[in-house]
Model the fold of this input.
Amino acid sequence: MIESNESSKAGLIERLGGLIMRWQDATQRYDETVGEIFRLGPAERLCLSFLAGGPQPASAIARATRLTPAAVTALVDRLEARNYVRRRRDPLDRRKVLVEAGPATEALIQKAYLPLAQAGAAAFDQRSTEELRIVADVLEQIIAIQDGMTEQLLAP
Done:
């Protein structure tokens, strides 16, 4: 039986597992609430999140969202009509088109995600550099585990 107090390593691991699940649920609730307020579905939110890294070709959006090319075209059309994204020529290859975040995405970030990032930064500011390094290392490891498990679920 696992000791459920924080004085044992097993108790801390159990607590961390529960906290990670609660964090995932809280993140999903927040993102769903943002979606309701801004009238964005899950694929639309995922696309906008992906574009936060900079302009992307439709093929990269298709891989990130796991949508077909035709579905990505429709998705980008919907988002473009609402000023969430815009298309532009690739400066390195004028034959290609890139999709980038538009003015409505910037407004969404300012209203919904910037305050969240600022509150998180204030919480992190209370920790030492070494504590933050440990948290970052653990999060990277947990993300890698979750990505690997996702790939396993998708494998034939």
